[in-house]
Design brief:
It is found in: Nucleus. The protein is 41% helix and 15% strand. By secondary structure, it is an alpha+beta fold. Helix 4 runs parallel beside helix 6 and helix 6 runs antiparallel to helix 8.
Length: 224
């Protein structure tokens, strides 16, 4: 059985181009599809967190995000988009988020903002193909080309703005007897905002979502 021993936390950050804000999300399981260059058919790897694999060309398997980034960067896999990170799902979520009252939220992945930022912005080894599609390891990126990713960014920013407004209003009510904010469907970052009674983390998330690879950051309007 093949084994990988990763001990240096700073090395993981550097190799994966991950900032501190996203580091906690690195252990999230994502689906990868090994490429034909993954020649050790059926290999399993023993990580500190447990066994992953088997790795066989074109057979999907789940691995931690940090490992998925490494394998994709070294041309040994492509990363599948999470089921919630597509325009159709996000449009439905946005409509539902608007429909719900100000103290209720749609269900989200606990690291949805961090994962979106990493997958959209922190994969500099991706390059555009001749027709404008994004390419990695010889395959089209599951998130689609620039136009599809731009729509995903806009939808995520719209969802974030609505949730940010709800959280801001909830924080205002925390010191009153009528506070009734349902936190059961908040992400880890959003919960941290409630606990600290500060929206600075969500402000940072807005900046991260607005980043375009190879360009500057243009923060979306915060709305307060």
């Amino acid at each position: 059985m093949d084994q990988i021993r990763i001990c240096d936390v700073d090395l993981i950050r550097k190799a994966s181009f991950i900032a501190n804000e996203e580091f906690e999300a690195l252990d999230t399981l994502v689906t990868v599809v090994p490429s034909a260059s993954f020649t050790t058919f059926g290999a399993k790897w023993e990580l500190f967190s447990g066994e992953v694999g088997p790795f066989s060309p074109h057979m999907p398997t789940d691995v931690p995000l940090w490992l998925a980034l490494y394998l994709e960067r070294t041309n040994r896999c492509s990363i599948e988009a999470p089921e919630w990170l597509n325009a159709a799902h996000l449009r439905q979520q946005l409509a539902e988020e608007k429909r719900l009252p100000s103290d209720e939220f749609t269900d989200v992945h606990e690291h949805y903002l961090e994962l979106a930022h990493v997958l959209l912005n922190q994969r500099p080894w991706l390059r555009s193909g001749a027709n404008g599609e994004v390419m990695a390891a010889g395959s089209q990126d599951a998130l689609g080309g620039p136009k599809a990713q731009a729509e995903i960014r806009v939808l995520l920013e719209d969802i974030l703005n609505i949730r940010r407004h709800k959280i801001r209003e909830g924080i205002k009510m925390l010191d009153t007897d009528v506070a009734n904010l349902d936190v059961s469907k908040l992400s880890r970052l959003e919960l941290a905002c409630v606990r600290s009674q500060s929206l600075s983390l969500m402000d940072k998330a807005q900046e991260l979502l607005a980043i375009r690879e190879g360009g500057g950051a243009t923060a979306a309007s915060a709305g307060g």
